[in-house]
User: What shape does this take?
Amino acid sequence: MDGTLIVGVDGSGAALRALDWAADEAVRGGFPLRIVHASGWEWYEGHEPSFGINRDVVRAQA
Assistant: This one.
């Protein structure tokens, strides 16, 4: 395998297990690892644009 290993996480147990696997594979193969965080769409519904969101809270939840 060539390139970057990419894994998506959403905070679930299954995603964290996938992250563990991906980290092991990246180390074993000498690949860079990119972690992509996803969150539920419903979180964004009804929120103000980014200038109205408390960025510290969003970072903590991520």
